[in-house]
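4.2 Preliminary Data

To establish feasibility before requesting continued support, the project team ran the inverse folding procedure on a target of 231 residues. The structure was first converted into the token representation described in Section 3, and no sequence information of any kind was made available to the design step. The complete token record follows.
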């Protein structure tokens, strides 16, 4: 993977709970002339830590999801990552299982590499090579990324908003504990598609704070005014 990254001018490698160290002898042997990428690799304990500060995150997956968004091709994913985000990341899962739904929840877009139905499986290095090639092509044709008119929220800001949304919707009775995660995933898809700016996230957090304040003023014995519909 380090060799592929260097082939296509990618130098920032983050590893989440890797099964071997980037300084492992076998890893360095297969990297050949790309050991400098392994030297700079950052090892983290969680995906959230690795993505801190990123404004656009795409996840690679071959699995269908409960709440389906259109999958992007590698070329479409590359254009989305390159356009307008100074800090962007593409997430690849382990070869044996790919990314879980919990890990994909950190991503705003999903990339699927089209393959033959007769033999769809790609190994990790192959998947990275295909996506890296597309990113490199975007860099060759885009001399300067077009910045959005407003700053984009990073992953920490978005996750803070989603956690706040969960607390508030549970408190006012819109969410029930047993179905909360499924409904919240739908909210994630809705807001991720809209491409919220940092200012818009702050605006929504202000609305949630006002709802929290109003809810605290209600008599404690008052029943919930809303009964959520079944999915």
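Position-by-position output of the design step:
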């Amino acid at each position: 993977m380090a060799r592929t990254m260097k082939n296509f001018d990618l130098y920032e490698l983050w590893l989440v709970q890797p099964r071997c160290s980037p300084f492992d002898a076998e890893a360095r042997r297969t990297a050949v002339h790309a050991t400098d990428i392994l030297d700079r690799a950052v090892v983290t304990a969680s995906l959230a830590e690795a993505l801190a500060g990123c404004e656009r995150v795409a996840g690679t997956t071959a699995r269908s999801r409960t709440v389906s968004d259109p999958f992007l091709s590698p070329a479409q994913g590359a254009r989305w990552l390159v356009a307008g985000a100074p800090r962007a990341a593409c997430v690849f899962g382990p070869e044996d299982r790919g990314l879980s739904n919990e890990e994909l929840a950190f991503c705003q877009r999903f990339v699927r590499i089209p393959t033959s139905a007769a033999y769809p499986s790609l190994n990790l290095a192959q998947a990275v090579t295909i996506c890296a090639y597309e990113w490199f092509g975007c860099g060759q044709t885009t001399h300067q990324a077009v910045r959005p008119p407003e700053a984009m929220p990073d992953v920490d800001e978005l996750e803070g908003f989603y956690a706040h949304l969960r607390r508030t919707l549970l408190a006012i009775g819109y969410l029930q504990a047993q179905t909360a995660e499924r409904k919240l995933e739908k909210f994630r898809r809705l807001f991720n598609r809209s491409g919220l700016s940092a200012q818009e996230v702050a605006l929504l957090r202000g609305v949630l704070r006002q709802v929290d304040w109003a809810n605290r003023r209600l008599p404690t014995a008052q029943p919930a005014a809303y009964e959520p519909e079944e999915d």
